[in-house]
Amino acid sequence: MPMITIALRAPSGQSRIQIDDDSALSDLVALIQSKTSLQNFTLKYGYPLKNLDLSPSVLPESIKSLNLRGETIVVAPLDTTPPAPTPPAAPAKPAFTPKPMEPDETSLEWPERGGHIVLRVMPDDNSCMFTAFGGALGLANPSAVLRNQIATYIMEHPAEYNKAILGDDPARYVSRIVQPDVWGGAIELSILSDIYNIEISSIDVKSLRVDRFGEGKENRVVIVYSGIHYDRIAFALDLSYPVEVDISRWSTEDDEVLVKAKELCKRLQGMHYYTDTTDFVIKCGICGWIGQGMKDAGQHEKETGHREFGEMEIH
Predict the structure, then answer these.
(1) Catalytic: which of 124, 125, 231, 246?
(2) Which of 20, 181, 296, 306 is catalytic?
(3) 79 is catalytic
(4) Is the pTM of this model over 0.70?
(5) pLDDT per position as a tens digit, 152-186
(6) In degrees rounded to 5, what are phi and psi of residue 195?
(7) Is 300 a known active-site residue?
């Protein structure tokens, strides 16, 4: 029977499940309960998001008519009681490892080069940007290595990376970026480009815009940004080969790589493999604060030090 892959976005992070297309909706609900450890929730999917009817009269029906292949389902718990006001020292990393999408959904054949351009999906553990870039260079333990290198670089370049640029006192910024639960972004990509003397081309799935950090350098790596997550672009001679033999660095004169990578991202865009960070509702998993978009989340993090966020259902 045909199996389909569905992405889940829950308060604990992102993951992927596989289910028979002929399964009943109740089977999908049970699988989501098992995957997320949540029992009571609402589900939304599609673009724009719409509610998935979970009434008892609908649950026995097959999910085939919903056309969920490649969709992202937002899982929002119904119990929104805030936790105890005393926060832990730091939130724990998510305890899951996302499964990759099916190869025909995350790769494109590249017959002219005898292989495939591939999206390598990174763990959703707050270090995805560091893992995506560091993995392209073959670094072991990339998150810890790159965070420490960035911290050192900032302190060694006080004129370039001051409070006005960082949006925070440099010493405080550095003390946060070395922690494994803090996200990396444009500032870190710019610094890593200088440290490793390599262009980092970041493709935004929603807009297909390519942001180049370190233009004019000899070689490049390509990463994919989907709103709150980074993945890596690689070339594989065969989809059965391990990631260790991927090609993930190219000459900056090889613009065909970017063309092919954008073609793959166009497919991801059609699958709605992105989060609109300007208007999605976000909740702090520590104190229960609710805001809108990444800008509000960043301000809340500065004010409280809380870094555990999840997207919320809009009723």
Answers:
(1) 125
(2) 306
(3) no
(4) no
(5) 999 999 999 999 999 889 999 999 999 998 889 99
(6) -60, -45
(7) no
